[in-house]
Automatic annotation (TrEMBL):
InterPro entries to which the protein is assigned, alphabetical: AceTr, Gpr1/Fun34/SatP-like
Keyword Nucleotide-binding carried by entry: no
Keyword annotations from UniProtKB, A to Z: Membrane, Transmembrane, Transmembrane helix
Places the protein is found: Membrane
Name of this chain's protein: Uncharacterized protein
Domain of life (superkingdom): Bacteria
GO cellular component, one term: plasma membrane
UniProt main location, coarse: membrane
Length: 204
């Protein structure tokens, strides 16, 4: 062995696998819980019912998937999961903060605080939707449905319309169904089967 060979740093092994197999199912379970809250499965005062799933499962699951994707050099995938990690974790903090008065927000500012949260994330996910136009169409559909759900819940919240919020909850179930499709395709490919068709990108 030459001196150069002896001193050369060993190559870093790149983790293998598909981060979507963690990111997508943890997204599905959190979205299902959120949809059930928005459609009235639990009383309006029990908005925190979904946090036991969203905080430890969905938020952390998205974060793990983002780190895994980044370690593989999958920057776009890491960005998507990182964005949704931020969404789900900040949603959990918002709900816990409002229900436990962590931030000193007066009761009469609770609605505008929720409106701020929803508006900020609607802007971010719309931007993500536009950035996804070169991805297979299933991803653009997923993000567009999330945009619609956020918009409906935003208008329902600021206008005190339970019906708009409920419709937003059903749209949550719609994008959850797209997530299920993506998960089944990823799992099929990971277990030696054929991946499911995801559609042509809007922009080639």
């Amino acid at each position: 062995m030459t001196t150069a060979e002896a001193t050369e740093a060993p190559a870093r092994a790149i983790p293998e696998g598909d981060p979507a197999l963690i990111g997508v199912p943890t997204f599905i379970v959190g979205a299902t819980a959120l949809g059930l809250v928005l459609t009235g499965y639990v009383p309006a005062g029990a908005v925190g019912a979904s946090i036991a799933i969203i905080l430890p499962a969905t938020g952390l699951g998205q974060l793990v998937a983002a780190v895994w994707a980044a370690a593989q050099g999958q920057s776009a995938v890491a960005s998507v999961f990182g964005i949704f990690a931020g969404f789900w974790l900040s949603y959990a903090v918002l709900v816990l903060g409002l229900t436990h008065n962590w931030f000193g927000i007066p009761a009469d500012a609770a609605v505008s605080t929720q409106g701020l949260f929803l508006t900020a994330w609607l802007v971010m996910i719309v931007l993500l939707t536009l950035a996804s136009l070169r991805l297979p169409a299933a991803f653009t559909l997923l993000f567009a449905l999330i945009d619609l759900a956020l918009a409906l819940v935003l208008f329902g919240t600021v206008n005190g319309s339970a019906s708009l919020t409920t419709v937003g909850g059903y749209v949550v179930f719609a994008f959850t169904a797209v997530g299920v499709y993506l998960f089944l395709g990823a799992m099929s490919a990971a277990t030696g089967g054929r991946s499911l068709p995801l559609g042509r990108p809007v922009l080639s």
